[in-house]
Design a protein that fits this description.
Length: 433
Amino acid sequence: MKKIAIFASGTGTNAERIIDYFASSDRVKVALLLSNNPTAGALDRARSRGVPCRVFTREELHDGRIAGLLLRERIDLVVLAGFLWLIPPSMTEAFDGRIVNIHPSLLPAYGGKGMYGARVHRAVVEAGERESGITVHLVNDRYDSGAVIARYRVALSPDETPESLERKIHRLEYLHYPPIIERLAMGAPSVSDNPTLLPDMKLLLISNSTNAGEPYLQYPMPEIARTLEGVGEVVFVPYAAVTFSYDEYEAKVRARFEQIGVRVRSVHRCPNPAQAVCEAEAICVGGGNTFALVKHMQEQGLMEAIREKVLSGTPYVGWSAGSNVACPTLCTTNDMPIVEPESFRTIGLVGFQINPHYLDANPEGHAGETREQRILEFIEANPDRYVVGLREGCMLRVEEGRMELIGKRPMRLFRKGEPIRELSAGDDLSFLM
């Protein structure tokens, strides 16, 4: 078990996401949260989650006492999450290459002393920039000058404000920072070996495989072909199949993918499915029952394997349940829980939830809840999470740090405290990134 320590000075929303991300991990543990601010909200968030906390002074940081504490606690990685003091040599020498920070701009732009939080977003907007983003970097004894691990971008709209940009940046941070921390804690290559650990993802998340009256996978196949351009073989995950065999599912998908010149190899034939994922040119996850899919993926260690592989640039295509598992949890599936997975946690390639096959209709004579009512229940219990109602015949593409809706029908967007919105192809979806 690898141990990390979080340093935070403020409200602690990033620290909270990191703690929650590793709450059920058997590989990485948040062992300690430290703050230079005795009234920091991060302390309350950590304590409420059972994480030990320590408040320290500038003298303790500089004279080596804090570094000594971390060494005694056998901390593997130090994570800065909204920590405003410069890290002194006593820390950078003791944890050389093992201190990571996230900055709310595309460094080296808008970095340096005094550039943090709202100050950065205000400067970016006032300068008329067309994009901003986050930079994850190693820490040295100079502000924002350590080696870059990864950058993620977001487009600015014409009417962007510092407040709206801050919300976009937070979503990038919540999505990307915890997986990067996990990779570094587990001994990912050093920056000198691999200067970009996590390039932009390439995802195609499809609502449904088949429109009524059409052949299997007909409508999404042009977009699948585009996503898989240059790919010779995909590794296919068939575990959502319940009333038909994995062999049948593989054959069905293979017949369609042959038409675009792509071979299909199903993980159910592989002695080590996780290893097959690690070696894949591209990954495809089919629809069916989401609970069955998640249970088998967890048993085979595929959640972690797919996340690491896709975050390193490998294309991912999923439809129905395969789109649902790209979200943080399976909680917005439409499926019956016919089996019990280890947890509801899924791959987490995007930071929002998808409800595939989203329906507006309430059949005549039906007295039960609609899809909208069920999603409203979800956002009531999960107020910080967006839910995309993805109607049939539609899909979401994520590529080059941007997201777009593909299809003739709008998607329905839910979030607690916000009006339900309809967004169409061509609308700005960057805030979801």
